[in-house]
């Protein structure tokens, strides 16, 4: 008789918390719009660390079960998902797609940033400043924030004044639009970051471009995209 058994992977604490919170939502105990207890209270209730709670909330947010408002609390989504992409095979396809986009973006955009630092015009700097101001205005508006984020990255390509870079970024626009929402949400909550921190990273890239520091602009862009990639690899 064979004595081999299928190995069982221990369940992470955050997965247990995630499942229990999701069950409460599905049962109706936590209704749409309900405000969840604070991270501190949840951590005490589950007898786990705050990072475990944040990781569970991050996953539920990415699935569409929760709405996490920076500085405003965590709420059950008003419209609950009928199918959870992160639990289905669809998420793994999406994850692969996001990873592919990030892999190509790292090298294209770090090059774009370096050339933009070298070649940007006064008019382009003004356009950057307008876009950053817009990003600040819409910090709490998820869709508008994504649009402004995308515009910022496309502006860098245009400021490179390299037609091939511009064409490559234009060709990636649709894929970037499809993946940006997922990648932003995963980065925010897995890294315990906020829209303000993401905005500051964009400002740092812009400042390097304005200062015509090609190496710094390229490095900051690379680090910016590597953060998103590292979060995704841990999912």
From TrEMBL:
- Give the organism the record lists: Paenibacillus roseopurpureus
Q: What Gene3D superfamilies does its record include? A: GntR ligand-binding domain-like, Winged helix-like DNA-binding domain superfamily/Winged helix DNA-binding domain
Q: What is this protein called?
A: FadR/GntR family transcriptional regulator
* Record keyword Transit peptide present: no
Which keywords does this chain's UniProt record carry?
Answer: DNA-binding, Transcription, Transcription regulation
Top-rank taxon: Bacteria
What region holds the HTH gntR-type domain?
11-79
Question: GO molecular-function annotation terms?
Answer: DNA binding; DNA-binding transcription factor activity
């Amino acid at each position: 008789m064979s004595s081999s058994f299928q190995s069982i992977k221990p369940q992470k604490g955050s997965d247990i918390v995630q499942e229990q919170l999701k069950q409460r939502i599905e049962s109706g105990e936590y209704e749409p719009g309900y405000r969840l207890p604070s991270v501190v209270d949840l951590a005490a209730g589950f007898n786990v660390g705050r990072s475990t709670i944040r990781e569970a909330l991050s996953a539920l947010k990415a699935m569409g079960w929760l709405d996490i408002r920076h500085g405003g609390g965590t709420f059950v989504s008003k419209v609950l998902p009928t199918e959870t992409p992160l639990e289905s095979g669809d998420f793994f396809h999406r994850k692969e797609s996001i990873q592919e986009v990030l892999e190509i973006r790292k090298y294209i955009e770090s090059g774009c940033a370096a050339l933009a630092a070298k070649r940007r015009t006064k008019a382009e700097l003004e356009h950057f400043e307008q876009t950053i101001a817009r990003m600040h205005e819409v910090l709490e508006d998820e869709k508008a924030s994504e649009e402004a984020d995308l515009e910022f990255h496309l502006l860098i390509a245009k400021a490179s004044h390299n037609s091939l870079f511009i064409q490559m970024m234009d060709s990636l626009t649709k894929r970037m639009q499809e993946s940006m929402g997922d990648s932003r949400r995963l980065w925010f909550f897995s890294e315990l970051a906020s829209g303000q921190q993401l905005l500051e990273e964009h400002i740092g890239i812009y400042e390097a471009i304005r200062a015509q520091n090609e190496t710094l602009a390229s490095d900051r862009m690379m680090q910016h995209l590597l953060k998103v990639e590292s979060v995704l690899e841990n999912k």
